[in-house]
Design brief:
About 30% of the residues lie in helices and about 30% in strands. The strands form six sheets. Strands 16-17-18-19-21-20 form a six-stranded mixed sheet, covered by helices on one side. Strands 3-2-1-14-15 form a five-stranded mixed sheet, with helices on both faces. Strands 4-5-6-8-7 form a five-stranded mixed β-barrel. A hairpin with a 3-residue loop joins strand 9 and strand 10. The longest helix is centred in the middle third of the chain and has 24 residues. It is globular and about 70 Å long.
Amino acid sequence: MSDEILINITPPETRVAVLENGVLQELIIERQRKRDIVGNLYRGEICRVMPGIQAAFVEIGLGRAGFLHASDVLVNGEIPSEEKGIERFLQQGQHIVVQVLKAPIGTKGPRLTMSISIPSRYQVFLPYSEKLALSQQLEGDAERERLLACMEVFKAQGYTGGYIARTASEGVCEDSIRADMLFLSKLWEAISPQIKDIPIGLIYEDLPLALRILRDWYQTSVVKIVIDSRSNFDKMIDFSDKFMPEVKPLLELYKGNRPLFDMYSIESEIKAALERKVVLKSGGHLVFDQTEAMTTVDVNTGSYLGRSNQEQTIFKTNMEAAHATARQLRLRNLGGIIIIDFIDMHDEAHKEAVLTVLEKAMSKDHAKYTISSVSELGLVEMTRKRTRDSLERVMCEPCPACLGTGQIRTPETTCYEIFREIIRDARQYEAKELLVLASNEVVDMLLDEESTTLADLESFVGIRIRFRAENEYSQEQYDVVLV
């Protein structure tokens, strides 16, 4: 298997596409105004303690209070027993240091923990612990013993805090492991003084998305990492020189005239991932419905009639659907409870085969998941850990015309699509001026909140850009006219 990582960066937005054997499997979008805060450290103030649900709400300066459950409370380096009650350890007005476990999703605030952990390439640092541990994915007793011995030697030199060896540390020389541990120790020394200096707010922010991808997503199957931003390419080169020299030969700066995501047909994949219906190669299709409580996936034979009996037709459709569903869950970043309604199968061997295909396809997923067996009704219940908003909720908002029963792209998303269309047209055609026709909401955003980006874009393409609001245009409609 060969993996490729494509990174498209513009001032307001960073997009990362992960391809396996040329097929898009995962998409991560981070916008400048809504940067991912998972992993960030904050000094917060407890605004409410809820003994009934054994949780507390913590104000950390984000506008929405964070949620801290009793199982994430840390007292003297240990998680206290829930039987003692959270109210015995936390009081309203108390200041504590917390880390974001899950970003705000919908109307929910961020999920917080007091068990701080700071990751690097090979290790995870636990400042409030003294334990040494290994990733469960590290295999081989000899390798596990070697890594543990290396960590113990480092700890014997008087360094405080605990460490967990990550999967990436397998086979890495002892000097690199110790250098990584030393880096984390010094980083915490730099962070610690800020804990008392900041009343409420951010203490430490994780790396930007492009560098987090190098740190967390690189594995031996990756053969190429392509980025279309010169400044960020230089930062990635510098980062790899310091921490990941084995990745440097894989880094590639994209210099083509066509946009990077157009070159790999990613844009069309993104649009398809926002649709409810996913057409299968056989002629069958899947229908995805995302709600607050769960996501349902309905499998249908559609136009596929098969060449043999009905049972074989159903079996083949379900097999294809199992593989496609796993890919779509990753691509759309769907989490929580997921119900897959496979077409009813009577043969137990067929049910087991479909479940095996689903489990194998899901094994490549970075998110934690669980899968149940096929029920008598052909339903499979599964869960997938949700750490950030789904693709639909990042790029779309409830439609006011249909009272939230459908989705349309946000003005922000349409603005960025217009920017890409302007670059595309400027490179393909000779024009003295471009006229953009769009809805009032989109034109207002372009001339107000996106005015700086627009000015930079106009300077970059060397063409004057004019705008005209069209009352009849919907929020996601636009036209770029050559003048």
